[in-house]
């Protein structure tokens, strides 16, 4: 029964001390310096909307006004069978080269819309958002 106690004590000691020592030894043995540099990857922002005429324009303006280089940002909006003015609002933004619009005439569901957005995405990072998510200004004001 003593060996069980000493095995448990050794396991606890390894957890608190041994593992940290092992990591330190490994770092000294195989040192890889961190390479630093500025990086601004292309970011694709994907949004699937359906009947969002009340919030869509404010959301698009918020996305276009983000503090990130405009040439490194792609906005993809997929309309999933909207029956209100959503597609009319999207057509108004179609002339902007940073906004990519996909108009699906039949409602196929959000998962299908996200797949359509991923097909259009060119960024190294893809951000999914929703038209009804409040922007940072509206959260701070309330």
Please count the helical segments. 5
What is the rounded Rg?
Answer: 25 Å
In total, the number of strands is 4
How much helicity do the residues have? 40-55%
Which residues sit in consecutive blocks of at least 5 with pLDDT less than 50?
A: 138-142
Intertermini distance: 63 Å
Biggest β-sheet strands, sense, barrel: 4 strands, parallel
Q: Whole-number average pLDDT?
A: 88
Reading the helices and strands in chain order gives HEHEHEHEH
Shape: elongated
- Please list the strands of the largest sheet in the order they lie side by side: 3-2-1-4
Quick rundown:
By secondary structure, the protein is an alpha/beta fold.
Tags for this model:
142 residues; alpha/beta; single chain; 4 strands
What report would you give on this structure?
The structure is a single chain. By secondary structure, this protein is an alpha/beta fold. The chain is 44% helix and 18% strand. It has 5 helices and 4 strands. A 4-stranded parallel sheet has the order 3-2-1-4, sandwiched between helices.
Secondary structure: elements and pairs:
Layout: H1 2-29, E1 43-49, H2 56-64, E2 73-80, H3 86-93, E3 99-104, H4 110-120, E4 125-129, H5 136-141
Parallel strand pairs: 1-2, 1-4, 2-3
């Amino acid at each position: 029964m003593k060996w069980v106690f000493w095995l448990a004590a050794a396991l606890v000691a390894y957890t608190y001390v041994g593992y940290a020592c092992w990591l330190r030894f490994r770092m000294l043995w195989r040192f890889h310096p961190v390479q630093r540099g500025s990086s601004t990857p292309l970011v694709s922002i994907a949004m699937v909307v359906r009947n969002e005429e009340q919030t869509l324009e404010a959301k698009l303006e918020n996305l276009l006004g983000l503090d990130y280089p405009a040439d490194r940002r792609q906005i993809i909006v997929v309309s999933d069978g909207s029956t209100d003015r959503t597609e009319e609002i999207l057509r108004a933004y179609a002339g902007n080269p940073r906004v990519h619009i996909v108009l699906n005439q039949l409602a196929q569901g959000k998962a299908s819309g996200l797949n359509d957005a991923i097909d259009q995405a060119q960024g190294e990072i893809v951000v999914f958002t929703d038209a009804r998510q409040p922007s940072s200004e509206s959260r701070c004001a309330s």
